[in-house]
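Q: I'm teaching a short session on how sequence maps to structure, and I want students to see two examples side by side rather than one. Could you give me a first protein with its sequence written out and its structure tokens following it? Keep the formatting plain so it prints cleanly on a handout.
A: Of course. Example one:
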Amino acid sequence: MVIQPSVAVAAAFLADGPADGVDLSLFGQFAGSWLLDCTEYGLDGSSTVRPGEWHFGYALGGRATTDVWILPGVEHGVSLRFPDPVAGAGVWRSTWVGPGRRRTHTFLASPVEGEIVLDGGDLRWTFSDIEIDAFRWSNQAQQPDGTWRLQQTFRVWRQN
């Protein structure tokens, strides 16, 4: 039997669930496929809405979560997230890669009052209004004067 490289990579990367003793529930609660409406906000106050999708699962022997979001014609972004108790109780490390826009971002993520806040220094991503079948996500960038500007929001609902 010949295994295609893409199948071998997927099998080596993805996991069926968390490894024994590893609590991945913070981001694992999103496991599955989701649809989204992405609103991007321009500096001039304009906004553009695009449909997309977001897929969450487990990876790296069940020691991490991964997700891929897709905005057709704009970006395919991937995140890898894992808990890091050395960084603090409930703290996760998260790295996002977006090759379409040639960007990478690293964050420390933690639950804050029913939300999940990813702090990247001058970038803050927040999962909010989290329910079993829906949530919201926002992307804010710190401006030179210290204020935060909303760049994107996602309205997300479960596909399966």
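Q: Perfect. Now a second example for contrast.
A: Example two:
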Amino acid sequence: MNREADRQDEDGVAEAIERELQLLSPAVRSSRALADRFFDPEFTEVGASGRRWDREAMLAALPAMQGAVEDGPQHVTTGMTGTLLAPGIVHLTFETVLDDRRVRRSSIWRKSDDASGWRIYYHHATPVPEA
């Protein structure tokens, strides 16, 4: 195998994970200007509520969502793993807990050709039923 290609694949997955974690932080969630740098122009999400979001709706709502206040409840993330699906496309899976609500999540990150780098293209959240 090509070691350079393997390293680039690992770097892409690591960068997508880093950006996903930043996107979950109150500092980014509470600032439309910061969050704007993380969302792909074609972003869509199917949220844990079942609601479908586009980029503009998410950017408008994000500062008021749970997890956006520094001294409030925040997402606790576990089991985050990533796979390079194709050059410039990374799929992440993980779980979050916020206020005792556990959610399984899946994100697709796409690397932009411009200087903006990796941006979230698609996100899906599924609540985990209580046992």
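Q: What should students look for in example two?
A: Point them to this: DSSP finds four helices and six strands in the chain. Also worth mentioning: The two ends are 44 Å apart (CA to CA).
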